[in-house]
Specification:
The chain is an all-alpha fold. The protein is 69% helix and 0% strand.
Length: 152
């Protein structure tokens, strides 16, 4: 019986770690695209997204903890709440809000691509549900003797 409990506990840890990683990245990108509505500055977007990505789960955890005796909280409550908030924001922004949030995510991907961050840009395009289009090569210059009128 103890062996099954340890397997279950390990599975919980893995799921929570995946929720932190995937939910955290998606939430950060979502909030960065929201801050990008106000400013195109990369540092401002990153700091704003970081503050929102940490602040929102912290507020929810504060509301979820018992009011009088914090020591009576269930073990793992804080981690579970943070994981759920990060995944919830991700699902709302990237999943359910897709018709509204797609242009925000595409613009965030464009900003990242313009700054030379191609791998993160492709990740954001994937979240937006679009395929990135690389810039078309410039047209070749016409030969000196060629004319576009067909020769006559």
């Amino acid at each position: 019986m103890a062996k099954e409990d340890s397997r279950f506990a390990n599975a919980q840890r893995v799921v929570r770690l995946l929720a932190f990683a995937l939910g955290g990245v998606c939430t950060f990108v979502s909030f960065a695209s929201l801050v990008g509505v106000v400013t195109g500055n990369g540092w401002a977007r990153a700091i704003g997204a970081l503050v929102l990505s940490v602040g929102l789960p912290a507020i929810v955890v504060d509301r979820a903890l018992p009011k009088k005796d914090v020591t009576k909280a269930r073990p793992g409550l804080i981690g579970d709440v943070v994981a759920l908030v990060l995944l919830g924001v991700s699902m709302l922004f990237v999943g359910l809000g897709q018709p509204v949030t797609r242009p925000l995510l595409v613009r965030e991907g464009d900003r990242l691509a313009e700054d030379g961050h191609l791998v993160p840009a492709h990740l954001v395009y994937l979240l937006a549900g679009v395929r990135p289009v690389d810039a078309a090569p410039p047209p070749a210059p016409a030969a000196p003797g060629a004319s576009s009128s067909g020769g006559h």
